[in-house]
Design brief:
Blueprint (H helix, E strand, L loop, with lengths): L2 H21 L12 H12 L9 H4 L2 H16 L1 H11 L6 H11 L7 H31 L1 H16 L18 H16 L1 H15 L10 H24 L12 H17 L12 H13 L12 H15 L6 E2 L2 E2 L2 H28 L5 H12 L14 H16 L1 H9 L18
């Protein structure tokens, strides 16, 4: 079996197990069986770290059901290959070449020899961030819900945030904490850290370690690090300014809030819209222009090797640099005085085209299954599902069964990756040695 098929089937297997567990009466607060479509939707949303829901997580599911969901989020955030590799390492099995190739492809990394140490680093890093986030959230939750309840609330939301899942045990997500710099700051920090990718975090850690120990040889940041950090920062700033300006006078969102809360909420939405499904204002009450801004941010998404979805920050940066290259009349696509390989440029173009086709097709299907819902809301829901973001205008539970199935399929495609899925269906690409004559044609 090819690596791509192993990854795709692995995610399907985890979703299937999660669906069966969530259907059990022990998983619900009422003690009744959960309908298959609700269980399947919830399990898919958790494994694909999306956050779209058709029932309220905090009131519908029992503590056991919530535990199953957070476990699915953790497996989905780490990735099927990372989770299974960890299990193999715990069992004492050595990783073969096929295992290392699978890890390399699933994490989108160039490293092959140090697969085991990479997995251990990822697991350790995940535990440190999630436990730290839970510790920081606990005091605020304890003041509202008591010490014992706050422990679970803090851990659940920390895991959900770092894995960019967006699941919340509060019926209004984080709207009740729109005035809390602590909750907004911790959740946003966890989402950003989970969305920039493990490689970026490790490079930053090594740089800090060398600075502390005053190493003579200073680390040179990779091109990947520079592109991811600069693009992420630019998107965060632009998103904050856009939401702040458009929603400033909206009486249903930022309008009634003081200036500092307006900035806090706008910044939080800018972080969340690219990767996670939390919200501190009513998304359904946002202006249409804000929804379009959110759609653009969601489509771009997080960074490679992270827990987030979308076409990725590096992809949009490559395309922007391609445009700059054409406008300047040059032949090389450059970034920070480094030439980007042609194969990366072609892959970036392929990712955008395939992703756009997926979103268009899913939106068309939704407009057929649920014609009574406004188009902008259907498009927003589709992009949120494909980019595994999880924010919604509130229509998820109102979708028909066929509409929910469309969203389920879209979440799955967005999580495994459209190119990986096509490779699994069609087989791994086989390069050809045949070179055909070149001929020009008109473009644009």
């Amino acid at each position: 079996m090819t690596v791509s098929r192993t990854v795709c089937i692995g995610f399907l297997a985890v979703i299937t197990v999660g669906t069966l567990l969530l259907m059990l009466p022990l998983a619900t607060a009422s003690g009744e069986w959960t309908s298959p479509i609700v269980a399947l939707f919830t399990a898919t949303s958790a494994v694909c770290v999306t956050g779209l829901i058709v029932v309220d997580t905090g009131s519908y599911f029992s503590p056991l059901g919530q535990g199953i969901i957070v476990l699915l989020i953790q497996v989905g955030g780490l990735g099927y290959m990372t989770a299974t590799t960890l299990l193999l390492l715990l069992l004492g099995r050595r990783l073969g070449l096929k295992d290392r190739l699978a890890i390399q492809q699933s994490l989108d990394t160039a490293e092959l020899s140090s697969a085991a140490s990479l997995i251990k680093s990822i697991i350790a890093m995940t535990m440190v961030f999630e436990l730290s986030g839970a510790f920081l959230l606990m005091p605020r939750f304890a003041s509202d819900y008591g010490a014992s309840r706050s422990l679970w609330l803090s851990l659940f939301h920390s895991v959900s945030a770092f894995n960019n899942a967006g699941f919340s045990l509060f019926a209004d997500s984080l709207v009740q904490y729109v005035h809390s710099p602590l909750v907004n700051g911790v959740i946003a920090a966890l989402v950003i850290l989970g969305g920039i990718g493990y490689q970026v975090i490790m490079e930053a850690f090594i740089w800090m370690r060398d600075r502390i120990h005053r190493q003579r040889k200073h680390q040179v940041f990779s091109l990947h690090f520079k592109v991811v950090t600069s693009t992420t920062l630019a998107l965060l700033v632009l998103g904050t300014l856009a939401f702040f300006a458009v929603e400033f006078f909206n009486p249903d969102t930022l309008g009634p809030e003081p200036l500092n809360v307006k900035l806090l909420a706008a910044g939080f939405q800018s972080v969340i819209m690219r990767t996670a499904g939390f919200n501190s204002i009513d998304i359904g009450a946002m202006k249409t222009s804000s929804l379009f801004i959110a759609i653009a941010l969601m489509f771009i998404g997080a960074s490679p090797g992270s827990t987030g979805g979308g076409i990725k920050t590096t992809t949009i940066r490559i395309l922007l640099n391609c445009t700059r290259t054409i406008l300047k009349g040059e032949n090389e696509v450059l970034a920070y005085q480094r030439e980007i390989p042609d194969k990366r440029v072609l892959k970036a173009i392929s990712v955008v085209v395939a992703s756009a086709i997926t979103v268009v097709m899913a939106t068309i299907f939704l407009s057929l299954t649920d014609p009574g819902i406004e188009f902008i809301e259907l498009l927003f829901e589709t992009v949120s599902a494909f980019a595994t973001v999880g924010v919604s205008t509130g229509i998820t539970a109102e979708l028909s069964t066929l509409g929910q199935i469309v969203i389920i399929a879209t979440m799955y495609i967005g999580r495994v990756g459209i190119l990986l899925l096509m490779s699994a269906l069609l087989g791994d690409p086989k390069p050809s040695n045949i070179h055909y004559p070149e001929e020009d044609l008109l473009v644009g």
